[in-house]
Design brief:
Length: 414
């Protein structure tokens, strides 16, 4: 048996580490403050009845983001730019319009999550949010893509605290099994939260971010196998975190004798952390929610700047100095500052977070429709989406979009 020489193994390991990042970052951002709140509400109101959906969404999320990575690496163009080149500027502006709506909603939930953590410890909200925005803007203005990516991963890894909390909550296996496939599809409130969970996992800005990120990082088509692993690991991690939050709230409230809606961040903290003790529990919850909110804030604000830059045609790379790409950094900073001003108006984090995820579900046909068509038309034959995989991916995308819209509309009507 041939054994690769140490130098070759070192090169392979080095390349693996160089490619890893965009998939993990976007997936950690996917489990943002709004997603954590949505998962907590799911466990609080329905126990483990929405857990199966979290598991089903793992392969769906991978399929969607793998197509995104493939488009970025092979074409070397961002998502908005590719839509403009293939379908024309009108369709590109429609697509980036849905992106901006999703980004504004997402940023409001992230900064509201940071405000909620400040309230948890009795800190003034406005200075906490302002300091967070200032630190993030400073980090992006003075760093390259790779440095921003490393910081975002560190932020996001705090989310693994929720896995520890779920382990300590000790959900009863019998109760989990009994409720796993209990799916009350005739209940509008259940469908509303089902739509919110779909929108919490498959978000419009994720498609734009990861496609732009792999290009900005300097990756190419030869990196596709490793980038797929990066995406698969990220998809698994994000759904483990979502499932952990759902399991924890379901277990804690079940042990207490029932389920009920959670109306604010302190209530969610109390539901997630009693097994760790009041002080330790609140610190662990705060780190998890803060990590989720910070990484998503970085990703979402960068996505808005990248998406608008791709369609409008201005310079849009973290490798450019702010003097060379003033529109890119200006959009990034203005988006963050505007969201911070709105958050200080006292928005209800829990209701807003779930509503934003439902909105994401309603946008899925546009976002995933463009993604599928680009994979069919914009890629050269060796990488084009064809054959049985095209049928499977198309069917999954169509079914997910249709169910997301149906569940959202029925839930809203109910």
């Amino acid at each position: 048996m041939d054994i690769a020489p140490p130098a070759l193994l070192s090169v392979r390991r080095s390349r693996l580490l160089a490619v890893f990042g965009p998939g993990l970052v976007v997936m950690l951002a996917d489990t943002d403050a709004g997603s954590i709140v949505t998962a907590a509400q799911s466990g609080a109101q329905w126990g483990y009845q929405l857990l199966a959906l979290q598991l089903v969404l793992v392969p769906i999320l991978f399929i969607v983001q793998e197509l995104t990575v493939r488009l970025g690496l092979v074409t070397q163009r961002g998502h908005g730019e590719l839509i403009r080149d293939v379908f024309g500027p009108g369709w590109a502006w429609l697509s980036v319009g849905t992106l901006c709506i999703a980004c504004v909603g997402a940023l409001l939930t992230q900064l509201s999550g940071i405000a909620g953590v400040a309230q948890l410890f009795g800190l003034p909200v406005a200075p906490a949010v302002a300091a967070t925005v200032a630190v993030i803007i400073g980090m992006v203005l003075t760093g390259s893509y790779r440095s921003v990516e490393r910081v975002a991963i560190v932020f996001g890894l705090f989310e693994l605290a929720f896995v520890v909390v779920a382990w300590r909550a000790a959900p009863r296996a019998g109760e989990v099994a009994a409720q796993l496939f209990s799916v009350p599809l005739s209940n509008p409130q259940y469908l509303y939260l089902a739509a919110a969970n779909i929108g919490a996992v498959i978000m419009p800005w994720m498609v734009f971010y990861q496609q732009s990120a792999v290009v900005d990082k300097g990756l190419h088509a030869g990196d596709l196998p490793v980038a797929r692993i990066d995406t698969a690991v990220g998809a698994l991690v994000t759904q483990i975190i979502m499932a952990a939050v759902l399991l924890t709230t379901g277990a804690v409230l079940s042990h207490q004798g029932g389920h009920a809606a959670l109306d604010n961040v302190p209530q969610i903290a109390d539901a997630l952390t009693p097994t760790l003790g009041f002080e330790v529990g609140r610190i662990v919850f705060a780190l998890g929610l803060l990590g989720a909110a910070l990484v998503a804030t970085v990703v979402v604000s960068l996505t808005a700047a990248w998406g608008l830059g791709e369609v409008a045609g201005f310079k849009r790379s973290l490798e450019h100095h702010p003097r060379d790409a003033p529109w890119f950094y200006g959009v990034f900073s203005a988006t963050l500052i505007a969201a911070a001003v709105l958050v200080n108006s006292g928005i209800d984090l829990v209701r807003l977070s779930v509503a934003v995820q439902v909105m994401n579900a309603l946008l899925l046909p546009v976002v995933l429709g463009f993604l599928f068509l680009l994979a069919r038309r914009a890629l050269p034959p060796p990488h084009r989406l064809t054959g049985w995989y095209a049928w499977m991916a198309g069917s999954i995308i169509a079914a997910t979009s249709a169910f997301g819209v149906y569940a959202a509309l029925v839930g809203l009507a109910g």
